[in-house]
Design a protein that fits this description.
alpha+beta; nine-stranded mixed β-sheet; three-stranded antiparallel β-sheet; 14 strands
């Protein structure tokens, strides 16, 4: 077995966390530091990992309104409004979902690091919708593994430009950093595999109301994939046309409305849905054919 896989399994941490520990010299194989994550273990090898204590988060709790759809001692499902960043980063030091979580919840997993406590996955700033939050490391590992295995159900609602030529379709195109604009993603031959299934919910005036389901979860995946087939999400300032057909303000009309997963402790399959924000409904009604 590879060293990183063994450490992740033995110490109940994510594989990326195991790789970081190995590279940082925190893992011994037969008493010797081993810094190669792909090192092949042999029968009888002794492995010991020195896992540093969690670093206290430097992020401040802020009393920001937060809609908690569900929570128990292991996890929470929360609603992120459009316009809110998930975690602190350059240009967004506070006012994020993490700041709100710290004010509303006593326990969050530490695997994501001090700037991303509890964060298992993300959605874009101007995309609204449901997010999973891990309240302990065991849950974080389980939920991350489910996402990595593509077993977490994630479905979105979107209003895209133009009329679709068929009722449903798949976009299976690799996504990576844009070759000339590092702030954007793009369809690139050497990118990471990305698969999106879309289906038409309603034809609109010069647009289409669709559901998009993710098999993978690449950065900006739905936005990049829909733009690549000539149907960018309305209001998308990055992947939409320079002169959009409708003056949609506030970002793309994209909403993560459904999430389904296996509960880390009970083994129960749980599914949650939540309708879009009023802004989304207003544009949907404005573009209706009748």
């Amino acid at each position: 077995m590879r060293l990183d896989l063994y450490v992740a399994e033995e110490y109940q941490i994510t594989r990326s966390r195991a790789i970081s520990l190995i590279k940082d010299g925190c893992v011994l194989v037969n008493g010797i530091v081993q810094t190669k994550a792909g090192y092949e273990l042999r029968s009888g090898d002794s492995v010991k990992a020195d896992i540093p204590a969690p670093v206290p988060t430097s992020v401040e709790a802020q009393e920001i309104p937060l809609r908690i759809i569900y929570q128990d001692q292991d996890l929470a499902v929360v609603f992120k409004p459009s316009g809110m960043v998930v975690h602190p980063a350059a240009g967004n030091p506070d006012g994020t979902l993490v700041n709100a979580l710290l004010a509303h919840m006593d326990d969050l997993s530490g695997i994501g690091g001090e700037l991303r406590p509890g964060i298992v996955h993300r959605i874009d700033k101007d995309t609204s919708g449901l997010l999973l939050v891990a309240k302990n490391d065991k849950s974080h590992v389980s939920l991350s593994e489910q996402i990595g295995a593509h077993t977490v159900e994630r479905a979105y609602l979107a209003i895209v430009q133009g009329r679709m030529s068929k009722d449903s379709g798949d976009v299976d195109r690799p996504i990576g950093r844009h070759p000339s604009d590092r702030k954007k993603m793009a369809i690139v031959p050497d990118g990471r595999s990305a698969f999106t299934h879309w289906s038409v919910l309603e034809e609109l005036r010069g647009a289409t109301y669709i559901e998009a389901r993710l098999k993978t979860g690449r950065t900006h995946q739905i936005r990049v994939h829909m733009a690549s087939i000539g149907h960018p999400v309305l209001g998308d300032p990055v992947y939409g046309p320079k002169k959009p057909p409708y003056p949609v303000d506030g970002g793309q009309l994209l909403h993560a409305y459904k999430i389904g997963f296996i509960h880390p402790s009970t083994g129960e399959h749980m599914t949650f849905t939540e309708p879009p924000e009023e802004r989304f409904h207003l544009w949907h009604n404005k573009l209706k054919l009748t």
